[in-house]
Amino acid sequence: MVKLRVASIIWLLLIAVTVLPLASAEGPTVRLLEISGPVTPAMVSYFERGIVAAERADARALIIQLDTPGGQVDLTLQIVQLIRASSVPVVVYVAPRGAQAASAGTIITLAAHAAVMAPETVIGAASPVGLGEELDDTSERKAKEDLKATVRSLAERRGPEVVALAEATVEEARAVFAGEALEAGLIDLVADDIAGLLDGLDGLVVEVNRQQVVLATAGVEVVLVPMNAIERLLHTVVNPTIVTILVAIGVQAVLIELSSPGGWVAGFVGVVCLALGFYGLGLLPVNWLGLGLVVLAFVLFLLDVQAPTHGALTVVGIVTLVAGFLLLFNYPGSPEFARVSIPLVIGVGATSGGFFAFILAKALGAQRRQPVTGIEGLIGAVGETRTPLTPTGSVFVQGERWSAVSEDGTDLPARVPVRVVAAQGFQLLVRLVDNGG
């Protein structure tokens, strides 16, 4: 027993000596965030979570791989505050090739402790745009001056030439490619990939929380911090194409539930789609008159189903729906990232109109169809006499026995086929079926 205990202790010590150094031998790392699309609240959450993860891991740096067409100013300023308050150096890397740091992306790049761009990328065009309407001269001037003051404060450390260029991106919507940005001093490096970025930034001195920090990034391990499921979902729905589809599906599903209550699947799907769609609408620059036209279109569809007008309201609804979606996003002055494809809008309008036309056809067919329940549903049915009709007797029709009378008053024998031609109260009026016919 004593030998067994000693052997167990020795085994545990061997495990501790072997495993513990491995557990604590993790080398230096940098954390990487990958962001693509307009600036959204989900992006702000992702930034904050990534900075916290980098600080807890005592990372050498946090790299933000950025490709954005812009977004709301207030969300952008929240990201700027997160970057400037970080205790870990933040590097914005505009990538991959063909990416852009436009509008809000320019301000985020200026706020970073170090900035890098991939070849064939663009930065700039930071002029403010209105959310759903064009800015008047006074509002536009105020917005521009506010943004110019912001970029001046962020670009001041890079020298007067960068300050002038940063102001031009706001005042004149100027944009430059990677080589021009490097020549002006707006960025620190042009790198083809993350490995080139790490080697190129090694030894660069940056200021983090008013302290000089020398970046030591050569050869360090890169650890990706991905978006979680909720962030990815909320970031994805802030897209005019996705919003258009969600609103179309949501309204149709809710109208199906209202016209045929009792189920729950259509209503549940409709509510979820509308909730996500309106979340996206609340963050995109939209024209609310367009939304009103979209709602009006579906009201017209519903009216045509409830009180059929042989498709007239459905046709008007399709035209109204297409006009509404176009006006919702493609109004004069709307930013490019908030525009929706015209073929998509026409497709959604045609699909919605076809769906309601199908429902309308079914409703009209139901109105014309002969009743299939009750005594009216027996008209035209074929049965058999069970007793002679002289001229009154009984017949067997659709599994039931009925009192019947011969149509022309003639006598009919038992066990002959007859057709129901009318009903008088609970008595059927029948005639002999012509076997030749």
How do the helices and strands line up, and which of them pair or pack?
Layout: H1 2-23, E1 29-36, H2 41-56, E2 62-67, H3 73-85, E3 90-94, E4 100-102, H4 104-111, E5 114-117, E6 122-124, H5 137-155, H6 160-171, E7 175-177, H7 178-184, E8 189-190, H8 194-201, E9 205-208, E10 211-214, E11 221-224, H9 229-236, H10 240-259, H11 265-283, H12 288-306, H13 312-329, H14 342-368, E12 382-385, E13 392-397, E14 400-406, E15 417-424, E16 427-432
Parallel strand pairs: 1-2, 1-11, 2-3, 3-5, 4-6, 5-8, 14-16
Antiparallel strand pairs: 6-7, 9-10, 12-13, 12-15, 13-14, 15-16
Question: In summary, what is this structure?
Answer:
The chain is an alpha/beta fold and 437 residues long. Helices cover 49% and strands 18% of the residues.
Search tags:
single chain; 437 residues; alpha/beta; 2-enoyl-CoA Hydratase, Chain A, domain 1; OB fold (Dihydrolipoamide Acetyltransferase, E2P); 3 domains; 6-stranded parallel sheet; 5-stranded mixed beta barrel; 14 helices
Can you give a write-up of this model?
A hairpin with a 2-residue loop joins strand 9 and strand 10. This protein folds into 3 domains: 27-230, 2-enoyl-CoA Hydratase, Chain A, domain 1; 237-368, no CATH class; 375-432, Beta Barrel (OB fold (Dihydrolipoamide Acetyltransferase, E2P)). The chain has a 6-stranded parallel β-sheet with strand order 8-5-3-2-1-11, with helices on both faces. Strands 12-13-14-16-15 form a 5-stranded mixed β-barrel. The N and C termini lie far apart (104 Å). The protein has 437 residues and is an alpha/beta fold. The protein has 14 helices and 16 strands. Helix 2 runs parallel beside helix 3, helix 3 runs parallel beside helix 4 and helix 10 (240-259) packs parallel to helix 12. The model is unreliable at 6-25 (pLDDT under 50). The chain has helices spanning 2-23, 41-56, 73-85, 104-111, 137-155, 160-171, 178-184, 194-201, 229-236, 240-259, 265-283, 288-306, 312-329, 342-368, and strands spanning 29-36, 62-67, 90-94, 100-102, 114-117, 122-124, 175-177, 189-190, 205-208, 211-214, 221-224, 382-385, 392-397, 400-406, 417-424, 427-432.
